[in-house]
């Protein structure tokens, strides 16, 4: 059926001569129809695929599918994942690394931008297959709809389509739409299934103890034969982890400095940089980026690395989907059991994650540079909330100094005792700190207080004997295992049954040795908490009144004693804790001696206590001894006060 008289047809087509654009193409001077088309291509990656082969193949297939009069007038293609959101597409420059014999006018963003221009060079977009536009259905249909709103139709070479139609009947595209949606669903299913299988494969790979990527600092790669014969024949290997002879001790040293010295990342880096031969700095994957020293980011990366616990961990970072940002720990994949030699315990790792550094605030008594600052606060950076571990900040109400915990609404812990903020008065903290120091730290009966609290010498001796026995048993089991292998070597012609028996026995010995090592590690961890009252003898005796000291001298005393104060609002109780480090014990003793009076009967002043001080419960102290990890120089011993509730206040 004709579409009206010739004059109306010319008017509907625009009435122009030469090549002219329209909804159904353009016409040349001789009246032949020309369909201007833009080629759209995409290949996922440059390492798992070969863009120099994929892109020419896509371009060739689209040319073979061109209808009569079809001409490719523009070329848009990218080398990137088709699972990205549309807004993130077309931003890469990976195409610059390849010599691909297909012209390129831009990427997907350039294609969408030109489609909106009135002087665009195309009326259609053609691709090899619809998954080349996007691997996700919603992203592919979004691009398709944006092109259609601009008057540009999206075609695929492997779908049925027609560009010419006669009469006044509407073009039929139902079959093409059905085919496209089915293919989009299949493409998205394929990608999701492959990702799920890949995830499961990496999870099993992790549980078996195999490492992905470069070995983390402190370990070195131990290459083993690939379990698949075909891949083993091609020389492919898998990677396990074993301690690095030069770096493992540095990892232990870093965790020690963080947990026991409570140093910041920068302070730990400065400490390690004092001896780079003892603490070799890490080398990145690209050695050209190495700075030759320790940086705070290096220290943070080591303290956040759970592989040092002996467990293999994967999926800590979303390197492809989220720009390398850390995933939440709930998404990490852990091996159920330790699969390589550990450098630290799980408890040590967890402590490092929640251990706040000592240097978290200004250490001087100089006022803050803020123009509204009017005073400083004695316990700034030493007082924390016992409910949320946040530092409490100073605030003046009338003329008295208080400390406040006021977390924001979205960051408030469920166990926080009040819906808003709460206060504790500085005067009460000072008076009970005097009691704590004068009785448990500088008092003449400090040793008896310690002994009556937790000290049990017989248990300590028994534990030491067990540790020595376990070490002997581990050596003995290792010797038996070597003898077993030696006996197999001396046999002239062992049969299969004998080999199987020896293999089984050797596995039993390995399991026994692993069990003994676990027991040894547990006892050694307990030994770290063995009380050592002898450390207190290095401190002088006397009495002290914090309120009579200049603020600078008082804060110097707090720093030398590694003072920590935690306030529990629910029980209205302050907990005081100090840490003595054997390495600096002499300097600590000198600092303390300068603040003590020779003889004084004022351990605390009951008559002058304020109402908040009388109501505030106080806590005593139990010194605890610990030994440093192997290889830590100089050797350090320490004790920390563990709080015990006692009457008074």
From TrEMBL:
InterPro entries: DNA_bind_recomb_sf (IPR038109), DNA_bind_recombinase_dom (IPR011109), Resolv_N (IPR006119), Resolvase-like_N_sf (IPR036162), SSR_resolvase (IPR050639). This is DNA invertase Pin-like site-specific DNA recombinase. Pfam families: Recombinase, Resolvase. It comes from Nocardia fluminea. The keyword DNA-binding applies. The keyword Transferase does not apply. CDD domains: Ser_Recombinase. Residues 499-526 form a coiled coil. SUPFAM superfamilies: Resolvase-like (SSF53041). SMART domains: Resolvase (SM00857). Residues 598-617 are annotated as: Disordered. Gene3D superfamilies: Putative Large Serine Recombinase, Chain B, Domain 2, Resolvase, N-terminal catalytic domain. Keywords: Coiled coil, DNA recombination, DNA-binding. Residues 227-362 form the Recombinase domain. GO terms for molecular function: DNA binding; DNA strand exchange activity.
């Amino acid at each position: 059926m004709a579409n009206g008289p010739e004059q109306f047809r010319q008017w509907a087509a625009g009435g122009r001569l030469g090549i002219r654009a329209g909804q159904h193409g353009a016409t040349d001077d001789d009246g032949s129809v020309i369909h201007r088309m833009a080629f759209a291509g995409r290949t996922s990656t440059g390492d798992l695929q070969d863009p120099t082969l994929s892109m020419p193949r896509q371009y060739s297939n689209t040319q073979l599918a061109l209808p009569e009069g079809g001409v490719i007038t523009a070329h848009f293609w990218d080398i990137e994942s088709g699972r990205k959101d549309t807004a993130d597409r077309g931003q890469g420059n990976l195409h610059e690394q390849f010599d691909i014999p297909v012209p390129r006018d831009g990427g997907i963003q350039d294609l969408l931008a030109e489609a909106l221009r009135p002087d665009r060079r195309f009326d259609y977009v053609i691709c090899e297959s619809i998954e080349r536009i996007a691997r996700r259905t919603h992203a592919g249909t979004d691009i398709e709809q944006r092109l259609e709103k601009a008057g540009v139709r999206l075609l695929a070479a492997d779908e049925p389509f027609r560009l010419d139609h006669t009469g006044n009947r509407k073009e039929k595209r139902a079959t093409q739409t059905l085919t496209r949606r089915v293919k989009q669903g299949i493409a998205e299913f394929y990608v999701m299934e492959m990702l799920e299988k890949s995830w499961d494969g990496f999870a099993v790979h992790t549980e078996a103890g195999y490492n992905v990527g470069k070995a983390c600092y402190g370990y070195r790669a131990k290459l083993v034969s690939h379990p698949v014969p075909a891949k083993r024949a091609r020389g492919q290997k898998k990677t396990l982890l074993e301690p690095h002879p030069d770096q493992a001790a540095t990892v232990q040293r870093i965790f020690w400095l963080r947990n026991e010295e409570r140093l910041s990342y920068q302070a730990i880096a400065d400490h390690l940089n004092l001896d780079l031969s003892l603490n070799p700095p890490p080398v990145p994957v690209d050695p050209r980026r190495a700075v030759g020293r320790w940086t705070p980011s290096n220290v943070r990366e080591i303290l956040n690395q759970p592989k040092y616990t002996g467990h293999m961990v994967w999926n800590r970072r979303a390197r492809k989907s989220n720009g390398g940002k850390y995933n939440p720990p709930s998404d990490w994949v852990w091996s159920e059991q330790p699969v390589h030699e550990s450098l630290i315990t799980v408890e040590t790792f967890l402590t490092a994650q929640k251990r706040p550094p000592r240097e978290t605030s200004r250490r001087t008594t100089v006022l803050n540079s803020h123009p509204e600052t009017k005073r400083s606060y004695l316990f700034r950076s030493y007082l924390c909330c016992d409910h949320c571990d946040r530092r409490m900040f100073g605030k003046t109400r009338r003329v008295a100094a208080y400390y406040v915990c006021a977390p924001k609404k979205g960051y408030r812990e469920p166990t926080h005792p009040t819906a808003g903020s709460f206060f504790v008065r500085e005067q009460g903290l000072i008076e009970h700190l005097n009691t704590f120091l004068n009785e448990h730290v500088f008092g003449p009966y400090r040793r008896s207080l310690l002994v009556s609290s937790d000290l049990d010498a017989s248990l300590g001796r028994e534990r030491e004997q067990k540790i020595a026995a376990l070490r002997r048993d581990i050596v003995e089991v290792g010797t038996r295992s070597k003898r077993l292998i030696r006996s197999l070597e001396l046999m002239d012609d062992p049969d299969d049954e004998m080999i199987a028996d020896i293999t089984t026995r050797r596995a039993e010995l390995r399991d026994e040795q692993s069990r003994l090592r676990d027991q040894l590690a547990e006892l050694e961890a307990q030994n770290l908490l063995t009380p050592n009252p002898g450390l207190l003898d290095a401190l002088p005796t006397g009495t002290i009144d914090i309120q009579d000291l200049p603020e600078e001298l008082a804060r110097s005393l707090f720093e030398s004693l590694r003072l920590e104060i935690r306030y529990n609002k629910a029980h209205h109780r302050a907990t005081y804790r100090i840490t003595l480090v054997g390495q600096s014990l002499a300097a600590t003793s000198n600092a303390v001696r300068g603040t003590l009076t020779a003889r004084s009967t004022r351990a605390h002043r009951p008559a002058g206590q304020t109402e908040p001080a009388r109501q505030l419960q106080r806590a005593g102290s139990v010194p605890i001894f610990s030994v440093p990890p192997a290889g830590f120089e100089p050797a350090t011993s320490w004790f920390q006060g563990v709080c015990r509730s006692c009457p008074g206040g």
